[in-house]
C-alpha cells in the first residue's frame, strides 16, 4: 500500500511524501518534459530533479540502468554531455495515455461488450504474459483462461496497441450483448478485481483528496497566473505534482471504464479524478517552469 502524510500545500514545506519507486518517477518526468523525438535529458538534470523529490543520485542511476535494460530509455549525448532519451516505441504509448490520464471526465464506456479471445502456441508461450499485460493495461477483465472482456469502446485502442506489440494475430475480437437476466454488477465483480482497484483509488485519496483545494488556498488570486509565482512556489509545485501524477496515472489503466451502474455503489474513481484534474490545472504549469529551469539551467 502507498503510504504518505496528507499535508496542506499552504504550509509551503508541507509536501506529501508517498512511497514511489525511482523508476516510476523517472518515467513520469520523461513523459512530461522529454518525450518528443530528438529530445534528451542530461544525466545531471535528471539527478537534480529526483534530488528535489528527495531521492539520492546512486538510486537514480541504478533505476536508469534498469530502465535502459527494459528498453524504456537509451543513452545519448546532448550538447556534449551524457544524457538519456525515451525509446521511440513508447512515444505513441504516452500520446495515447494522455487521453486517459488527463481527461477531466471518466469514460463511462458502452453497454455493449468486447470479448478478446487469444491463443498463443506453446512454442511462443513467453508472449502470453506480455499479451495479458497489454489487455490488463487497457482495462480488460478476465472471464476465463484466454477470454477477456471490456467495454466495446476500447476496441480500436486494443487493436492498435496489440498491433504495435506484434501480438494482434493471436487475438480475435467479438462485440455484442450479454444475455443474462441476473445482476450484471455481481458478474463484473468476478471479471475484475474491483477490491484491488478500489484500494489503489483509496491510497490516492488518502493523500491527495484535497490537493486542488490546498493549492487554491496557497495560490489565491495567482491561481491562474503561473508567471506571477516565485521560484520557491514553483519548486514546491514540482515536488507536489510529480508524485501526484505518478500515483494517479496508474488508476485510469486499472479502472474498467464501465458504466457506473455496473460498478459498486459509491465507486470512488470520479472523486479521485476531480482531485487530480483540479490540482493539475493549478500546478502543472508551475511544476514545468521549475523543471525547465533545471533542465535548461
Give the structure's gist in a few sentences.
The chain is of the alpha+beta class and 297 residues long. It contains twelve helices and seven strands. It is globular and about 60 Å long.
Question: Secondary-structure map with pairings?
Answer:
Blueprint: H1 22-33, E1 41-42, H2 43-52, H3 57-69, E2 73-78, E3 81-86, H4 88-101, E4 113-118, H5 126-137, E5 141-144, E6 147-151, H6 155-164, E7 171-176, H7 184-191, H8 194-208, H9 211-219, H10 231-248, H11 251-254, H12 269-296
Helix pairs in contact: 1-10, 2-12, 8-12, 9-12, 10-12
Provide an overview of this structure.
This protein is an alpha+beta fold. It has helices spanning 22-33, 43-52, 57-69, 88-101, 126-137, 155-164, 184-191, 194-208, 211-219, 231-248, 251-254, 269-296, and strands spanning 41-42, 73-78, 81-86, 113-118, 141-144, 147-151, 171-176. The protein folds into 2 domains: 1-105 and 193-297, no CATH class; 113-176, Alpha-Beta Plaits (2-Layer Sandwich), CATH 3.30.70. It is 52% helix and 12% strand. It has a 4-stranded antiparallel beta sheet, with helices on one face. The protein has a 3-stranded antiparallel beta sheet with strand order 1-3-2. A hairpin with a 2-residue loop joins strand 5 and strand 6 (147-151). Residues 1-13 have low confidence and may be disordered.
Amino acid at each position: 500500500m502507498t503510504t504518505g502524510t496528507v499535508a496542506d500545500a499552504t504550509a509551503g514545506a508541507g509536501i506529501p511524501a508517498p512511497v514511489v519507486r525511482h523508476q516510476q518517477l523517472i518515467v513520469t518526468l520523461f513523459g512530461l518534459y522529454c518525450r518528443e523525438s530528438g529530445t534528451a535529458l542530461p544525466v545531471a538534470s535528471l539527478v537534480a530533479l529526483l534530488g528535489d523529490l528527495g531521492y539520492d543520485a546512486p538510486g537514480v542511476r541504478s533505476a536508469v540502468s534498469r530502465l535502459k535494460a527494459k528498453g524504456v530509455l537509451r543513452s545519448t549525448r546532448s550538447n556534449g554531455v551524457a544524457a538519456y532519451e525515451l525509446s521511440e516505441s513508447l512515444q505513441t504509448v504516452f500520446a495515447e495515455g494522455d487521453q486517459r490520464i488527463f481527461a477531466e471526465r471518466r469514460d463511462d464506456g458502452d453497454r455493449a461488450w468486447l470479448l478478446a479471445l487469444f491463443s498463443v502456441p506453446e512454442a511462443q508461450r513467453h508472449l502470453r504474459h506480455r499479451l495479458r499485460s497489454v489487455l490488463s493495461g487497457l482495462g480488460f477483465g478476465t472471464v476465463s483462461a484466454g477470454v477477456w472482456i471490456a467495454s466495446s469502446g476500447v476496441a480500436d485502442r486494443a487493436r492498435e496497441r496489440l498491433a504495435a506489440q506484434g501480438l494482434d494475430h493471436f487475438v480475435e475480437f467479438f462485440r455484442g450483448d450479454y444475455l443474462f437476466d441476473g445482476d450484471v454488477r455481481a458478474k463484473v465483480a468476478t471479471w475484475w478485481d474491483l477490491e484491488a482497484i478500489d484500494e489503489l483509488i483509496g491510497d490516492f485519496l488518502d493523500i491527495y483528496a484535497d490537493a486542488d483545494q490546498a493549492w487554491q488556498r496557497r495560490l489565491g488570486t495567482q491561481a491562474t497566473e503561473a508567471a506571477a509565482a516565485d521560484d520557491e512556489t514553483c519548486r514546491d509545485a514540482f515536488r507536489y505534482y510529480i508524485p501526484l501524477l505518478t500515483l494517479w496515472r496508474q488508476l485510469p489503466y486499472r479502472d474498467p471504464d464501465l458504466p457506473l451502474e455496473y460498478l459498486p455503489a459509491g465507486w470512488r474513481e470520479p472523486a479521485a479524478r476531480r482531485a487530480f484534474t483540479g490540482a493539475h490545472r493549478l500546478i502543472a504549469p508551475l511544476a514545468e517552469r521549475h523543471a525547465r529551469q533545471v533542465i535548461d539551467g
